[in-house]
Amino acid sequence: MVIPWGRNDVVHPGHGLGHHAPMDGLKHHIFICINQRPPDDPRGCCAANGSVELHACFKREVRRLGLKGLVRANKAGCLDHCKDGPSLVIYPEGVWYRVRNETDVVEIMERHVVKGQLVERLLMPGHPPPPRTSESRAVPRPR
Ligand code: FES
After folding, report:
1. Which residue in 28, 88, 121, 140 is a FRET match for 71, CA 20 to 30 A apart?
2. Is the CB of 78 under 6 A from ligand 1?
3. How high is the mean pLDDT in each 10-residue block of the chain (143 residues)?
């Protein structure tokens, strides 16, 4: 049995979506930081580390896996993890990841989103995943 992550207090009875889900039928909402700063800014930024391309990769993966309407990958502003980025967070679980390349994106989509598995090697430092709930939010791959 797949045990995903999330908070019981944000799950709406009946359909299992947290309050972050903006529309009916959406199972996961992925926010990817694409914030860009000047090259001389000491904080750095996710865009300088390829986050715009990685966001596009997430969108391609949503299409490849047939998850349009179930999973949404949106651009986000700074998520306050600039030095560890590119940064992203997946709701409703509230799991934070850092991604470096397309291989990371594919692994998050195939394991976290489709199978409900935690991708431990990509967890954002300092952001342990919330406690698991007993309700599955894995999205089965269409046949
Ligand atoms: S610039 Fe991406 S987390 Fe701050």
Report:
1. 121
2. yes
3. 40 34 78 97 96 98 97 98 96 96 98 96 94 59 49
